Amino acid sequence: MSVHYCGYEWLKRTYELDVDSPNPVSKIGGAKDSNSRIFRPEYQPDESLAGHLLFALKHENLNLSILKAVFNSCDRKELELWISTNPQGQQTRRAWFFYEWLTDKKLELPDADTKVRYVDALDEKSYYTGEKVNSPRHKVRNNMPGVSAFCWLVRKTPTMKAFDNKDLHQKMRDTYSSHPMLGRAEAFLLTKDSQSSFEIEKEKFDNRAVRWMKTVRAFMNSRLDDSKLFEMQRQLVSNPDNGWRKDFGWIGDRLPDATPLPEHVSAHPESLNGLMDGWLKSYSLMFERHPVAAATALAYGFIIIHPFSDGNGRIHRFILHQLGKVPVSSELLENIDDYITSLKKLSAPILNRSEWTVTAGYNIELINDTDDLYRYADATDQAEFIYSCIEQFVSHRLPQELEYLTAFDEAKRIIDEKYGMPDKDLTLLVNLCTQNNGDLSNRKRKLFEQLSDDDIAFAEKVIKASFSDYFKMTNAQ
Fold first, then answer.
1. pLDDT of residue 180
2. pLDDT tens digits along 229-244
3. Which of 247, 278, 418, 469 is a good FRET partner for 356, with 20 to 30 A between their CA atoms?
């Protein structure tokens, strides 16, 4: 049976667009595989710009990269003719809206009839959206989760809907509220999250990390802007950029002759003002929308753009925490291979389409226009991964860490009542014992020469009793 490509793939091939194929590719006929979706013959669209645009908008996932490339390549008169022959059609008005939204150019068409009902730009049953803003010209409700300069999409897949139905954020709030010292519990978990974020980067938790924690606490409940992002980088690195990155950037390895071997190519430095302006506008739009969709799109978008020469990873994880409302760095560290895979899924298409030369200083220099690769993406896979980390935190780590705090306070109180130790020494004793299932190792015994063997035995007994439930929880994993 012959194969006929439809929708975005037909448009890509017909207009010879330098963009990735949609996933899945739509076909009439042919064998089904993981990268294609087969439609019955009656779905065959007209072999025209209008026919395949209509098919794409009705039957395929929205692909902003392909739409923009089509609009920049097609005959706008042909587009105007199609829209003018059916000005009340929902898909024609959506196509019209997307043309003017993506290209910032105006078609030679009169405004839509005021009697026509509004249609959503993005299907709210299928996507996490932004707040609706009416566009009277098109009679389209602009509910895009971003602006044309930066807009990453997250779909409402069965997996995402299942997570939504679990109401994990409410479960987290209920668990927190049951703890007698709510503020201390949140501060404790914020500290552990910051430690894990540094550990992911394989960096020591030093005085710089302490400064970073203070910055995180200061900015956690306020909206980010460029000045706050610059300040965050200043607290993280010894040689900050004092603005956006000025040089080309990449992540990867080097060949023996020092030639760069990138695994990720950062956005062109001359494009950062426009990309980050779009990112910040999208951040403001999505600040109080769906926490996981917003956190994923914006945090992953940030690290893929890589606006700084250093510190991007920790700021990315801060954004995940701030917008997602859950500290997930410990879960990312625990699932580090899946985390790296989630990043590589977004880096790979950019790497494949980036062309560069090696500079005299053994850096890379981009020689083709890749801006839209950073501007538009589908982050659904990443959102599903982040949601799984949130579930892991809420179901396991949060109760475990709150039990730790309760046990810690109890053990300290009982030991202090008997010996009246300085708080820093008592805290150290409890910490060292809990790291070894309640026993103080012989190597660490010399740190507490003021205590007799009987004193140590008493402390170990108290710690084991206080932490019995905590040890059961951790040893069961």
1. 66
2. 999 999 999 899 999 9
3. 278
Radius of gyration in angstroms for the set of CA atoms belonging to the chain, rounded to a whole number: 27
Number of domains in the chain: 4
Of 394, 414, 392, nearest in space to 402 by CA: 394
Give residue 473's pLDDT: 85
Q: Are residues 97 and 140 in the same domain?
A: yes
Residues 424 and 296 grouped into a single domain:
no
Give residue 309's pLDDT.
95
pLDDT at 476: 64
B/e letters for 35-51, b = 16+ CB within 10 Å, e = fewer, are ebbbbeeeeebeeebbb
Q: Is residue 151 part of a domain?
A: no
> Domain range holding 228?
158-391
Domain-terminating residue out of 341, 356, 391:
391
The ranges of the chain with pLDDT < 50 are none
Instruction: Tell me: do 402 and 386 sit in the same domain.
Output: no
Which residue has 């220099």 as its token pair? 365
Return the pLDDT at 315. 96
Between CA 254 and CA 204 the distance in angstroms is 25
Pairing state of beta strands 140-142 and 119-120? parallel
Using one digit for the tens of pLDDT, what is the confidence trace for 426-444? 999 999 999 999 999 999 9
Tell whether 49 and 84 lie within a shared domain: no
First to last CA, the chain: 53
For residues 184 and 128, state if they share a domain.
no
- Would 149 be classed as within a structural domain? no
401's CB contacts (< 8 A; 6+ apart) are 185, 188, 189, 192
Q: Based on the fold, state whether residues 191 and 254 are members of the same structural domain.
A: yes
Calpha distance 361→281 (Å, rounded): 35
